[in-house]
Structures are given as C-alpha cells and as structure tokens.
Amino acid sequence: xxxxxxxxxxPPVTVLENELDIHQRTEVGGNQSSISTFIxxxxxxxxxxxxxxxxxxxxxxxxxxxxxLLIIVLVAVDQHLHTPMYFFLMNxxxxxxxxxxxxxxxxxxxxxxxxxxxxxxxxxxxxYFFAFFGSTECYLLSMMSxxxxxxxxxxxxxxxxxxxxxxxxxxxxxxxxxxITSTIITSFMVQLTFCGPHEIDHFFxxxxxxxxxxxxxxxxxxxxxxxxxxxxxxxxxxxTLVSYICIILTVLRIPSKVxxxxxxxxxxxxxxxxxxxxxxLLMVYVIPxxxxxxxxxxxxxxxxxxxTPMLNPLIYSLRxxxxxxxxxxxxxxxxxxxx
Length: 339
What we know:
- This protein is mainly alpha-helical.
- It has helices at residues 12-30, 47-77, 84-113, 120-153, 158-161, 164-189, 207-211, 219-252, 257-285, 291-318, 321-338; strands at residues 37-40, 117-119, 199-200.
- The chain contains eleven helices and three strands; from the N terminus they run H-E-H-H-E-H-H-H-E-H-H-H-H-H.
C-alpha cells in the first residue's frame, strides 16, 4: 500500500530544520556570557589629541595626587585649619585622589603598552568606584555649600550649629549615599550578558556605553541609573543652588563693599569647583547624545574625572589665604627640623 502524506504530519526535512534551529539558539544562548573582555576605544578618532593626552597624563596625575595629599596633610597637622570647612575639604581631597586613581592609571597603561583591553570584572569594578566617588562628590559639595551658608547667613550661630558631630554626620551621609547608589546600579549591571560587540566607545567603563553592548535588555540598568543617578546629582545640586541663592541675597544686603568682597571670597573657591564639576556633568549626561556630541562627551568627561581632581588643590590653595599661610608654616617647621 502506497504511503500518502497527511498535512497534519511534519515532513522529515522540516523536523531536521527545526532541530537545527533549536540547536543554534541553544548554542548562541549558551555563549551569551562568553564575552569576558572589552576593548576601550578611548579617543581613537583623535590621534593628535591622544598624543597630547599621553604627554600630559603623567603630569596631571602627579599634580593631582600630590596636591590633594598635600591638602590632607596640611589640614591634619595645622591647628588653624581644624574647622568644618577644611574638614570637608580634606574629605574632598581624599575623594579626588581616589577618583583620578580609578581611571587615569588604566589610561596611562593603555597608552604605554598599547593594550586597551579590560576584563568584565575590571570594567564592573571601575564603574562601581566611579559611581561611588562621583555620587559622593555631589553630596560633599552640597555639604560644603551648606557650611558656607551657615557661616555667612547665620554667623552668630555657626559654631553652635556646625559642630564636630554634625560635620561627621554630614560627611558620613555623603559617603554612604555614594556607596548605596553605586551598589544598587552595579547589582543590575552584573546581570547583563554580552555575546556580540565588545568595543566600548569611551576611555573608561561608563554605564551607558557598556550597557549598549549587552545582548540582554538593559532597561533595568538604565532606569536605575537615571533614577538613582538623578537623585544623586539633582538633589545635592538643588541644595547647593539654594544655599548659594541665600548666600548671595545675604551678601547683597551688607552695606559695606569691603565686607561684601570678604564674604564672597570665603566661598569663591568652592563656587568655581562646583561650576566646573556640574558644568561638565551637564554637558555629558543632560545634552542629547548626537554623533558629534558623543565624541565631545569624552572630552567633557575628562573635566570631572581627570582635570577637576587636579584643579581643586590649585583653586583652594591659590585663592585661599589660610591654606597658603598653613603651607608656609609647615615649610618653615620642616626646614627648621632639617637644618
């Protein structure tokens, strides 16, 4: 009896094709986490800029680390600097030293060796500390602005309000906010799988270029970054802005021009640092990322990751009489011991 094929039956060829398709999807699915190394493209399209950066990077790193460590030592050893403002400045200097050390050494290593690769674990670690230090800096800057607000707007109650206990609480809150923000976002980041392109279009492991390479849906990572990152920047920025509005209004009511200049001089250094830091963040994370802006964003990212940590000690030392006097006193003590 001749066999007659029925439509309800699946032909053998179709069965083989389905089995092959399932096998291929299983094989691809099994390899989704096989990409364990990334390549940091850096400033690949700007060869001349890379040469300049290669020459200046060691100088910038040495100046940043030396300058920030010098401020930490001065504040620690000089009794005249044992005030709330310099306590927060010491915290900021310690943070900036860690901040630049998280990114610039890897960049220098890539320049010298030509190896731009970074492991997934190394990438996650770099992002974790970048988010940790960045969020902490936002809160520290707002605490410093609050300190200036109390000193200028409520001078009679300043020493009572801004006591040692409150200083420790404000600084601890800043560091804890940074840890919590970074830990939550990183916990979403490590759940991503990577099976395709592995070239990160940046000079460090920023969350958005990395998540764009993921084979899995990066929605939760980006959503948590927008929410927590927004809270970690917008909230402290608002506090800083409100503090300075109150400071400006208070200073403008002072009848003496000399007194006004003296009041503004106590917070001018901090205002410059805030402008540099938030200005560069605004350019990178708020302005829409067109093709042209993507390349410029790398340059702007250098401001808050590399240049700001180097400039902070210069700004606070060159524009601050007390720091310069403390430096002279320490230099005299050191020379007397040596001689």
